[in-house]
């Protein structure tokens, strides 16, 4: 099983989760983070660290977030690995409560 970064991360890209990951399985895009499913060890340390509740266990992934398993898998193959916490985007707080942001995902 893996953990999955969902839609709420888009344009927020808080990296608190990256800091606690013992296997460095996070990858960073322009405005979103993903988890590499083949590297995730299902430790669950990242999930409570996300300030916008964007991380889900694969078996608890809401139906409206199901496509993000495939998105995480695809983008983790091309985006660079991130292993340290960084500052969130300057406007991240403005995006924290915005719903339906998939169309804003930058690949």
Task: Detail the topology: elements first, then pairings.
Layout: E1 3-5, H1 16-20, E2 26-28, E3 33-35, E4 55-57, H2 67-76, H3 92-95
Antiparallel strand pairs: 1-4, 2-3
Description:
By secondary structure, this protein is an alpha+beta fold. It has one domain (3-87): Alpha-Beta Plaits. 18% of the residues lie in helices and 11% in strands. The protein contains 3 helices and 4 strands. The protein has helices at 16-20, 67-76, 92-95, and strands at 3-5, 26-28, 33-35, 55-57. The strands form 2 sheets. Strands 1-4 form a two-stranded antiparallel sheet. A two-stranded antiparallel sheet has the order 2-3. A hairpin with a 4-residue loop joins strand 2 and strand 3 (33-35). The protein starts with a strand and ends in a 12-residue tail after the last helix.
Strand content: 5-15%
Distance between the first and last residues' Cα: 25 Å
Which strand order do you get reading across the main beta sheet?
1-4
Largest sheet, in brief, is: 2 strands, antiparallel
Q: Could you name the CATH class?
A: Alpha Beta
Structural class: alpha+beta
Low-pLDDT segments? none
The number of distinct structural domains comes to 1
Number of strands: 4
Q: How large, in whole angstroms, is the Cα Rg?
A: 12 Å
Can you tell me the overall shape? globular
Structure annotation, total helices: 3
């Amino acid at each position: 099983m893996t953990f999955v970064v969902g839609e709420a991360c888009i344009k927020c890209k808080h990296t608190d989760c990256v800091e606690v990951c013992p296997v460095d399985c996070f990858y960073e895009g322009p405005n979103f983070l993903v988890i590499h499913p083949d590297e995730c060890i299902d430790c669950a340390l990242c999930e409570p660290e996300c300030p916008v509740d964007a991380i889900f266990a694969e078996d608890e992934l809401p139906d409206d977030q199901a496509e993000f398993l495939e998105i995480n898998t695809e983008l983790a193959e091309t985006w660079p690995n991130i292993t340290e916490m960084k500052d969130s985007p300057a406007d991240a707080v403005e995006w924290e409560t915005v719903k339906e942001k998939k169309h804003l995902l930058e690949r």
